[in-house]
């Protein structure tokens, strides 16, 4: 395992991604992590960049023990300044923050092959990406320059005996052309890690872990939604403990068209998961009647979901006890690594813009212990896992769908007829996107129903009906997003079909707002 210490750079996740791509398992922890408290012994340590300057008041610092472990250390950008601070280099402030491309001239040391390992296989000059305000004016004693740029004489330094390296540029971003190779060289060549982190090895390891944690008779209950995360998690559980895993799908009345049936067909009929479908749509829709405030809608759906799920879990619990299997012990959650990172970041949790309902609230009244088989994985790793576990492509590549579903896509009041209009329009929209071969280029697309009326003309008749707004975005983490440049001919087909086929709609508009300042959902 390689340890990555996060100083809050927006690129820290990318370092983790690149190291795993090299086949090496790594963990990202806040820079304040105490080395003595680690639950593993790292084979190497990477210090990330940071939005801070090393001169800022309150600038974060690492446990000095990082440098006493005797394992190789690589400091990136701020990480390099942090090495200099600990090892006695001179740090200066750039007159202007340097941002963008630079040409790195590599300096080789034939008589010191160890420091040359970091840039092994790279050409003599390499295009790199810089983003920094501080730089080294002199290297600490014993460090050799292994790379420089026009503006930074000490753009890359290394120390043979201490096995410490520092680089001013960001190898984790794709703009640094040979960056991937640099990180590979560090973890494979310098830390001498084995490249044995693959999804197939993950499956074996995780199934074994689940079996050990749950025990030979333990039982697990978990909610599934038809999204890739909960499906992959459920599939892993099924593989590990068979029917001792009980999946629950709650129909909340605001899911997509035919969603419940199709999720059931895949999970229960095809993947053989022990699934119970609970139709609670009346309960949800009754409680939503007359509610227009988006946050209230979320609360109602979140709380009702917990209620319904807990009732169902209690029924399963009772049945299990009666059949001699014993009580349910665990609750499955499809938590991913970014959620874990977010909750342990030293910057603290980000401000709440919308309360994203998750099933965390379930635990308050339940005595169940949590089991989270995906907590080490990124989304694309979950997709790769889904493929290996034989889950349909359609499900593996599904766009995310919010817990409150169509309720936050019917602006204003949520009623059965309104939900049905939004549902049909959305279905046509997604169908046409798929026909045009664009589904995978888009991160998320949906149709929202606006509760305003506008005038139209159909045949010779005046119409006075509602508006459908089409949303499609490209995003990597859904924290920021760009609107998708949908081809006009595709928009034309979608608009024609929606207006012709969905009663109650006479106008279709396309949303061209990015996030920020807009959000992906309209509510
Ligand atoms: P926003 O609208 O905040 O959405 O830009 C970012 C991502 O989060 C999803 N989203 C939700 N997911 N419960 C969820 O499970 C929610 O209440 C919720 N609100 C937004 C949204 O679909 C997008 O992928």
From TrEMBL:
Keywords: ATP-binding, Glutamine amidotransferase, GMP biosynthesis, Ligase, Nucleotide-binding, Purine biosynthesis
Entry-linked Gene3D superfamilies: 3.30.300.10, 3.40.50.880, HUPs
Cited CDD domains: GATase1_GMP_Synthase (cd01742), GMP_synthase_C (cd01997)
Key word ATP-binding present: yes
Signal peptide: none
Residues at which ATP binds: 225-231
MF GO annotations: ATP binding; GMP synthase activity
InterPro entries found in the cross-reference section: Class_I_gatase-like (IPR029062), GATASE (IPR017926), GMP_synth_C (IPR001674), GMP_synth_GATase (IPR004739), GMP_synthase (IPR022955), GMPS_ATP_PPase_dom (IPR025777), NAD/GMP_synthase (IPR022310), Rossmann-like_a/b/a_fold (IPR014729)
Residue span, GMPS ATP-PPase domain: 197-398
UniProt EC number: 6.3.5.2
Annotated pathway: Purine metabolism; GMP biosynthesis; GMP from XMP (L-Gln route): step 1/1
Catalysed conversion reaction: XMP + L-glutamine + ATP + H2O = GMP + L-glutamate + AMP + diphosphate + 2 H(+)
GO cellular component entries: cytosol
Protein task: Catalyzes the conversion of xanthine monophosphate (XMP) to GMP in the presence of glutamine and ATP through an adenyl-XMP intermediate.
Name of the protein in its database record: GMP synthase [glutamine-hydrolyzing]
Organism: Dimargaris cristalligena
């Amino acid at each position: 395992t390689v340890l990555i210490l996060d100083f809050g750079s927006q690129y820290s996740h990318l370092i983790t991604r690149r190291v795993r791509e090299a086949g090496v398992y790594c963990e990202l922890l806040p820079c304040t992590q105490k080395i003595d408290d680690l639950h593993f012994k790292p084979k190497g340590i990477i210090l990330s960049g940071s939005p801070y300057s090393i001169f800022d008041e309150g600038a974060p610092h690492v446990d000095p023990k990082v440098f006493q472990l005797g394992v190789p250390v690589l400091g990136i950008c701020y990480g390099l300044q942090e090495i200099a601070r600990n090892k006695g280099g001179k740090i200066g402030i750039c007159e202007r923050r340097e941002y963008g491309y630079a040409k790195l001239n590599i300096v080789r040391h034939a008589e010191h092959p160890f420091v040359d390992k970091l840039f092994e296989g790279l050409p003599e000059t390499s295009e790199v990406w810089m983003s920094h305000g501080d730089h080294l004016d002199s290297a600490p004693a014993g460090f050799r320059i292994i790379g420089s740029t026009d503006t930074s004489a000490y753009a890359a330094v290394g120390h043979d005996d201490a096995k410490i390296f520092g680089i001013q540029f960001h190898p984790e971003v794709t703009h640094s052309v040979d960056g991937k190779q640099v990180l590979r060289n560090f973890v494979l060549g310098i830390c001498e890690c084995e490249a044995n982190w693959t999804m197939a090895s993950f499956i074996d390891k995780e199934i074994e872990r689940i079996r050990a944690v749950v025990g030979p008779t333990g039982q697990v209950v978990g909610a599934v939604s038809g999204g890739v995360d909960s499906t992959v998690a459920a599939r892993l559980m099924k593989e590990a403990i068979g029917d001792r895993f009980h999946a629950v799908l709650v129909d909340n009345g605001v899911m997509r068209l035919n969603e419940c049936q199709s999720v059931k067909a895949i999970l229960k009929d095809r993947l053989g998961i022990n699934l119970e479908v609970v139709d609670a749509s009346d309960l949800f829709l009754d409680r939503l009647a007359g509610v227009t405030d988006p946050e209230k809608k979320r609360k109602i759906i979140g709380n009702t979901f917990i209620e319904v799920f807990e009732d169902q879990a209690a029924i399963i619990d009772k049945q299990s006890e009666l059949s001699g299997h014993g009580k349910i012990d665990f609750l499955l959650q499809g938590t991913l690594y970014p959620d874990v990172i977010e909750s342990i970041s030293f910057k603290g949790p980000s401000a709440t813009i919308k309360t994203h309902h998750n099933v965390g609230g379930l635990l308050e009244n339940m005595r169940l212990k949590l089991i989270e088989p995906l907590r080490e994985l990124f989304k694309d790793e979950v997709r790769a896992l889904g493929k290996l576990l034989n889950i349909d492509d359609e499900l593996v590549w599904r766009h995310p769908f919010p817990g409150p579903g169509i309720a936050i896509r019917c602006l204003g009041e949520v009623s059965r007829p309104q939900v049905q209009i939004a549902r049909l329009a959305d279905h046509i929209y997604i169908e046409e996107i798929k026909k045009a071969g664009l589904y995978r280029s888009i991160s998320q697309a949906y149709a929202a129903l606006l509760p305003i009326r506008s005038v139209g003309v159909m045949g010779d008749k005046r119409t006075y009906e509602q508006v459908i707004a089409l949303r499609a975005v490209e995003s990597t983490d859904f924290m920021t997003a760009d609107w998708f440049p949908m081809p006009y001919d595709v928009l034309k087909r979608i608009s024609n079909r929606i207006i012709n086929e969905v009663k109650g709609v006479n106008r279709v508009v396309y949303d061209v707002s990015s996030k920020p300042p807009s959000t992906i959902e309209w509510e």
